[in-house]
Amino acid sequence: MGQRRRRVEVSDFLIEHARQLFPSGGSAAGAASYERFEAGPLVAAREFFARRFDEAPEAAAGIKVWVTIDLPFFPPMAFYAALVGDHVELLDATIEEPQDYWNLVDGDPSA
Question: What's the total number of domains in the chain?
Answer without folding.
Answer: 1
